[in-house]
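quick one
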Amino acid sequence: MTANISRPPYNRASLKVRLFHIGFGAFAKAHTSVFHDEMLRQTGSDWGMAVARLNSGESGLTALDEAGHLFAVGEMSDGDLDLRQVGAVIKTLHPNRDGIEALIAQIADPDLQVITLTITEKGYCLAREVLDLENPDIAADLENPSAPKSAIGLLVEGLYRRKEAGLPGLTVLSCDNLPSNGKLCRTAVLEFAGHRDPDLKTWIADTCRFPCSMVDRITPAMTEDSFNKLEVTLGAPDPNGILCEPFRQWVIEDNFAGAKPHWDLAGASFVDDVEPFEDIKLRMLNGSHSFLAYLGALAGKETIADCMADPVFKSAAHKLMMSEQAPSLTIPAGFDIEDYAGMLIDRYSNRALHHKTTQIAADGSQKLPQRILAPVRSHLDAGRPWPLAALAIAGWMHYCRGVSEAGTKLPVNDPHADRVAELASGSDDDGYVLNMMLLAGIFGSDLPANPSFVGLVTGAYETLKTDGVNKALAACL
Ligand code: CS2
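structure w/ D-mannonic acid:
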């Protein structure tokens, strides 16, 4: 293995917090902070980053403080590890350690210009694209808005403080894998604000901007093995380091409230309309990821690269992309979708990345609607076949029973895990499939009422059970 290490050449002492990232986990380290670090390298601007996490991860932030906020990001491809030391972060915040007031004050800081978010799909507290007033954190935050628990409650309280202080609004930039993520974020924030005070809602709508963005970089969770790899290359351990693929992409709607960081100099694109790019990425990449995650984990494949090493899985993933996901998309003129699919297969085949199927399988209830069910709706309308998507949905249902084909235990991490476990233990197969379709509005009211949908998914569930994943996939090729 060869290694190149590049250290931040800019003057970190002159950085001020102008960017605040909420939800600073592995992905934000490998993506947002790398774009930002590269922008600082190109421009020498004074835009430093404060980073926060809201729930777990307090000790990780303290470890980052102890390292002077420097951490390594390693881009892995077979035989190569390119290392960058990111110097963009200058402050960390966690409500359990610093108090929620410190995070609110950060939003209300006059120097702040932009907030970026990676709070995952469930962090937006939406149910069918409106704010979920039954979400316990939202209910608690509306009751007690000055001590918020949710990211949405935190944003609104911080913006309220800005309004009261006579400060300008901000740009709130969602970097989560949701379609029209900026619009959904705006909906959640404005609905929450409206329940507090209609004037606050109007002020936020008038002064703040919520651009949509498409983010892409495959970033597996760190393992002991990846920390060891980093240590060997760096010559010292880096408990804050992260390994990811070389590819990175960020397409951002050009819609900012105030100053806009020059992320374009770091490879990001500012465009008028992100939605076609978001949909392409969500359906082609994330959709095929979820397909491989459930079916792969059931068939005993530990990683996405293991799936790609099996010709049946590899062909099935490509066929899902080209025959079922692509036809559901509006593809911009000049965009080569065949080329994009081929590139995804190459990225998935990177054996240096140990991207676990069970990692991607997490939070299926939050991911299936935009990744798999939205294309299926378009197939139902257009009368197109969707056998592989049916196997993905049935695969998710099998996966949720928590056992692989070989009888090993599979982790079911999902906000609805308790209800899923009840369903999995309580009903026969037909009852289980139908009950899963009624779970928490994931399938809407239209799909469970559509006999063709119910029939295909029930059939796919049976096929997986009787024939096994490999045979079921092979039959679709
Ligand atoms: C993955 C994504 O875990 C998942 O759900 O599909 O994290 C995926 O790796 C990224 O979106 C790639 O950009």
